[in-house]
Amino acid sequence: MFFYVSTLEGLHMCPFSVTLQNVPDRELGPLLTQLSHAGFDSPVIRVLGADGALEPSDAASRRPTGTLPEDWRLVGEREGESYGWPNGRDRYSSYRVFMATTRAEGAVQIGLGETIRENKWGRDRKYVVAFLSSGSPQQPLADFVAADDYEQTRELVAVIRGSDGGRRMYSAGDTLPALYTERFRTQIYNERVVFPGAWNKVVVVAREDDEQTMLNHALIQSRRRDRR
């Protein structure tokens, strides 16, 4: 990868362009985080092809867009990834890392891991788990679970947390953050997952091929978690 960032140095405050070549995937996330902390939130990232040549890119698409990014792009796929939970370990048949730019975070990477969890809400269900990730799964942000009619609709649902500024889920009568009412399709969990004990809580609905919805929901959840 080629990496460009402009800064101001020297007696006369002349601008400089710094290029870091061949940055490995595993190092890119931490590097971007450090640059963001230093105040450089809008690097231009170019991907190298297998032959080492730059792939075509539109520089404008790398700029921060709005409150939610529109430029999520696949930057890596990893095999054999897993994540340990208190009650077991997920092993992901697919683990893909996406990157986008925002005004708030600068460059951000989120991974989506796909797995089947046995005997969840009465059956084996597909899950897509979103992680804050610069490579391997790191911090889990949201779980999307297959709805009862998944075979017909290919839809998954994920609870919306943060009604208390932390991990509390939103009930049917709660006022959702404006982004959710404006940008997402929402329903109630136990309308899509019908099983004793299923939550009467609000969920985001996404088709399994709608990565942008899943990634943007995970990004909002990470922001609300950071405000605790």
The share of residues in helices is 10-25%
Write the H/E string, N to C. EEHEEEEEEEEHEHEHEH
Number of domains: 2
Nearest-integer average pLDDT: 80
Rg from alpha-carbon coordinates: 19 Å
Descriptive overview:
The chain has 2 domains: 1-63, no CATH class; 64-226, no CATH class. With 228 residues, it is of the alpha+beta class. The chain is built from 5 helices and 13 strands.
Secondary-structure map:
Blueprint (H helix, E strand, L loop, with lengths): L1 E8 L4 E8 L3 H13 L6 E3 L26 E6 L3 E4 L2 E4 L2 E9 L3 E15 L2 E10 L6 E8 L3 H4 L1 E5 L18 H6 L2 E3 H4 L9 E6 L3 H16 L2
TL;DR?
The protein has helices at residues 25-37, 150-153, 178-183, 189-192, 211-226; strands at 2-9, 14-21, 44-46, 73-78, 82-85, 88-91, 94-102, 106-120, 123-132, 139-146, 155-159, 186-188, 202-207.
Task: Summarize this structure as a short list of keywords or feature phrases.
about 40% strand, 2 domains, alpha+beta, 13 strands, 5 helices, three-stranded antiparallel sheet, globular, eight-stranded antiparallel sheet, about 230 residues
